[in-house]
Automatic annotation (TrEMBL):
Name of this protein: Ribosomal protein L11 methyltransferase
Residues holding S-adenosyl-L-methionine: 195, 216, 238, 293
Cellular location(s): Cytoplasm
PANTHER family noted in UniProt: ELECTRON TRANSFER FLAVOPROTEIN BETA SUBUNIT LYSINE METHYLTRANSFERASE (PTHR43648)
The UniProt record lists the keyword rRNA processing: no
Keywords: Cytoplasm, Methyltransferase, Ribonucleoprotein, Ribosomal protein, S-adenosyl-L-methionine, Transferase
Record's catalysed reaction(s): L-lysyl-[protein] + 3 S-adenosyl-L-methionine = N(6),N(6),N(6)-trimethyl-L-lysyl-[protein] + 3 S-adenosyl-L-homocysteine + 3 H(+)
Annotated EC: 2.1.1.-
Family: Belongs to the methyltransferase superfamily. PrmA family.
MF terms (GO), sorted A to Z: protein-lysine N-methyltransferase activity
UniProt keyword S-adenosyl-L-methionine present: yes
One Pfam family hit: PrmA
Biological processes per GO annotation: methylation
Amino acid sequence: MIWRKYSIDTTVEAEEILAAFLMEELGIEGVEFSDQRGITEEEAKTMFVDLYPEGDDSIDDATLSFYVEVLSKEDKERRKEEVEKAFSDPLVDHSYTLNSSNIFTEEECDEILRALKKELENMSSYCNIGKGSISQSETEDKDWMNAWHDFFHSFSVGDFFICPSWEEVPKEAEGKILLSVDPGTTFGTGQHETTKLCLQALGKYGKGKERVLDLGTGSGILGIAALKMGAKEVFATDLDPLCEGAVEENLLKNTLSKDQMTLFIGNILGQEKEELAFRKSCEEKPFSLVLANILAPVIIALAPEVPKFLEEGGIFIASGILEEKAEEVRKTLKAVKEWEILDELKEGEWHAFVCRKKV
């Protein structure tokens, strides 16, 4: 996957005309202005700051940039289908949906450049376009991933110690359950408060749980943590098919076989044939532990359903709940007769609940 930046060396006079052309005629979503203009009185009225950057209106040079993601025709069509599927599901938080803006094939990028050059030539007849030159730069996903080496380091969470593959395991990891996880561009590493809360709860309430269900697995870190604690079977679900590679990679990093975790791509509350079949299998052979590091609206929808997937006395760990949603989740859990709330954990603005299915 390639991310490309196009930059046009132009003038203050021409940049807004160019921006309008890019967005209205070429379908570019969002552009970046870079010039030395000062803030006008009208612009100042819309800004809630006390000090404004000083400009120099005598400098007419400006740079207008826009960004595109370059995919093959097949990958572009696949991305479109994945995004449409995600947006059709009311339980998906769309702020985390795959990128759907400014996606073009190489051929389409060539067409954009031709149209842009033609427009610059046309504009030069009625306004100062400056140099009017176009430059481009590219960044591949692997460049973003390598950048993580500078600031992602090992850390401890409850009974667990998380260490990236490029670091030596330090002495402070002794006595902890070691998890080897590397950052990626799509899924988490355990650093986020919601995952930390899940790991803390897992260390306290997950001992002796042999059959585990991880809802919304992402990188697979919670399921892997359960396996490292001694779970015999882990079943995991996620809506995003891209998680398959992340889960398999993280299993191997932790010297676990991909056969030790069964991954289902789909919604356990969905109505597709495969989703209904998976749900039925979970009800017929219940789990001793269910993990859900998702979002409050999804947890609220899951609350009355998860008891069907748990054996009596089984544990449900739910995380991903913001402060303003905590009371609503708490009330929902209390309203489900099968639940006994054992614990509530909090870190920053995030909450997690631990429930037990009543015997």
